[in-house]
Structures
1.
Amino acid sequence: MAFLHSLDISGSGLTASRLRMDLISENIANAETTRTEHGGPYCRKMAVYQCADTNGSFRSMLDSQTAKSSGNMPLNGVKVSSIEEDKAPFPVEYDPSNPDADARGYVQKPNVDLIKETTDMMAVTRAYNANMTAFDSVKDMAAKAIEIGK
Amino acid sequence: MDWLDSIPSAFLQKDLDGLWARQKVISDNMANIETPGYKEKNISFENQLKSKIDSIDGSGNVPDEINGIEDTKPLMTENTRETYRADNSGVDLEQQMVSMARTSLNYSYSLQTMGDYFTRLKAAITGSSK
């Protein structure tokens, strides 16, 4: 619905923040995991954000360009385009008693940095709150608009 | 011409439309606050309305003036100059928050004015303000 489309925009921001928060939780939960399905230690996961105005297809590019000149705005908020794995090398630790230790006694640990995850978590919380405030503001405006002429 | 249409109500309608569009753009900016390479978008419509107000001197006929007002469109611009983060993102959260509060208040103010306009119309119809 065109009238309350603004709420969807804020909603997309909330959804993206939530997904990012899920990934952070997973990273923290697996900060010590040395064995995964694919073998090797757990690899840190990250969400890639993309502006949802255009998704690179011809159709969306055409729409966005023609809409700009006619005053209509193709604003669709944000989306998570993919979930990538951190390419940083796994830190190694000398621990011969660990069942996942190699022949020389070294264990590959996940490339999860707890401090990095915590700061990311704060950034996500802030973004979530900002979207929530925008959502509330639009909601209030719409509620007041209903009262016109009363 | 509809008998309810008038120059003030046309202006108010455009004002409300413009403010709504601005709020939408602010929502989009906030949703994309963490998107790398995203640039802040802005809406301008006040200047178009202002120049329309200045051009109306009472000599033209009302339906034409109203059509002229209704033809104005909010203009969307992208602020490509500012960059606030290393990933090229260009959204200033604080500024967006201020802009959002201002837009919301402005919207209420214009709605109030619109309401008053209808109240006066009602008074003219019924002969009382009740």
Note: Residues 111 and 143 of chain A are 48 Å apart (CA to CA).
2.
Amino acid sequence: MTSISLKHVSYRYPLDTNNVIDDMSFDIEQGRTYALIGANDSGKTTVCNIIRGFIPRFYRGDLTGSVEIDGKPVTDFDDAQLTTMIGYSFQNPFTQMSGVKDNVREEIAYALENLGVPRDEMIERVDAMIELLHLEALADKNPFELSGGQKQRVALAAVLVTDPGIVILDEPTSQLDPKGTEDIFDIVELLKSQGKTVILVEHKIDLIARYCDQVLLLDGGRLVMNGPVHEVLTDPAVLDHGGQLPQVARYYLERNRRFGRHDPIPLTVEEAAAQERKGR
Amino acid sequence: MNSAIGKLYPSTKFCFILLVIIASIFTPGHWFQYAMFPLFAVLSLFSGTFVKYLKAYLSSILLIVVLIFAVQVFIVRYDDTTPIWAFIGFSQTGLTASLGITSRIAAICAAIMWFFQVTSTKDMVYAMERANFPKKMTFVIISTIQMVPQMSALSATILDAQRSRGIETEGSLMTRMKAFVPMLGPLVLSLIQQTEERALALQSRAFLFKARKTSLYQIDKRPVDTVIQIVCLAAFVAYVVWMVIA
Amino acid sequence: MKRGIRYDFSLLALLLIPVGVSMSVVGYQLSTILKFPIFIDQIGTVFVSMIGGPWVGLVTGLMGNVVNGMLNPVSFAYAFVSMIIGLVSGFLSRWKWYTNIFGTIAACFVLNECSATVAAVVTIFVFGGVTGAGSDLVTAAFLAAGGALVQSVLSTNLITGMAAMIIDVGVSWIILRRLPDRFLVKLNYGMPYVRNRKALA
């Protein structure tokens, strides 16, 4: 069942002469986890903005082609509906803090407050979210006193509390340390288990290999590869388009090439170990 | 804000100072007005803000009061100014006028300063939201009040950073003025950049949603609030009657 | 460019208000630390009014005085000065006065006159007339307004007032030029300041 559908979408920022997205078409199916990869400026964030409707509403500019969610054009939905349908998390933990709340609990509740959710329900949902993301220790702290990783987790909680069916994560770990990154991907795993549709923009290819179902590779505003993770991330052509391959895959590709072997390419250390064990 | 006064509902305290301000403006003479500062000082004892109140009040209001006093009495020319020396003269009308002006300023400032010291911004904004003030308005108030102290602190950091980069902050006026833009510029540009991101983040939190905003934080009007508000209203009515009759 | 107060208060414009107030506060601190002979405390108001328009500029000015007023209530009274600066500057921006050097200098002059006049009126009301003297008050205010206008043109007030205004407007303008076009395009009043005019055609 298709959730999101882009057909021949092109976009140009106001005052720019070139399209930043060119003739892009793909479908996003409900409940699967998608990774958008590619070099910086390949258009990944732009695509996310288009899906969420920030383009053209906030960014203006020229958008052509059709963008549909559940069969309806994105422009048919008003911003409020899109907020409850699509949760969007940004790269910078700091600017996602609302700046009007002095403790984490209220920060998480902020979206529900704006939606006019009754207080009793709010308390339940916020407590549930805190438990889900293991934020108990932070619940009464001031958002501005948190570390980058902690802020990012709070920001995610604040966005997920509205229970959106689709979640877009735009480089959520780029400003985090390894532990913070691990925490975020644990959340991705959680979202998968809840059956949500996840669109992840990331550079950490080894983690994408582990957690994502499908990979879309963008290069210069065009969609150059779109397929299941095992297909795309074992294809050396990815490297020609500004993408990366998981270390394990690169190792096996190189090994096949050098020794004329035709072994299947694993994506993670665990897969490789399993493969080796079977081989023996 | 943990005192009994701090815990009162904001509109209760507001009613009270409104009453005081109106009375201070319209009551003739100056004794009532001059009594306001001591009154609020005593109240601030009960609200645990005594020292803070004293410090803030004396450092800001005292200077103005003395200045106005001096100017009105000795410098401004009234019909009955008797010259003392050069342009300085003494005027009885001036004295009366300055007593009137300074006492009112002292009273009004005493009330307002006390109010802001015993009412947290959070409570104030909550009360406004509950009273159906526009969402955008309460947002601007609270985000501005929260942001300004942070920015002050940040600017001190930027100042040091720019100094270490060789921007001269001592010397001739021209040198010092040239330092102004490199100090302010980076702060502003980074703030502007954050503004865009913040706008999107807030939209993702349903900021533009048209529903009536609810609140996780809650404070309630208690019986003591209602009592005080009724007393204030009664006092106000009595005051108006008294002013009209007298 | 659509008119209308509600349209002016878009989310982006709303977020500029705390930025403007912070700028004014930091501007004041800097001018104190750098020991300027004049107060530079309206820089945020002017800057925001240029790209946010008159009403957003007015609120920025107001909020600046509200924040200060919580510590020193006299600031509340002088909020009218900041408000008039924000309001007038915003209108001047809408009428494209800031797009050339002559308009900008003229703007400094107009803003200085407005602020001096309003300041004088406020001073009379607050410090000269709070005795409830009725009609005397109104006369005094008018005299003050007229007097201030004349005085500020003919006296040293012109120099110090203009100097402060020139810095407020000048620095705002410098920073404005450094704003990326992409950002300006999103603002209701940003269009005149976009550098890449060809692309707009």
Note: DSSP finds ten helices and two strands in chain B.
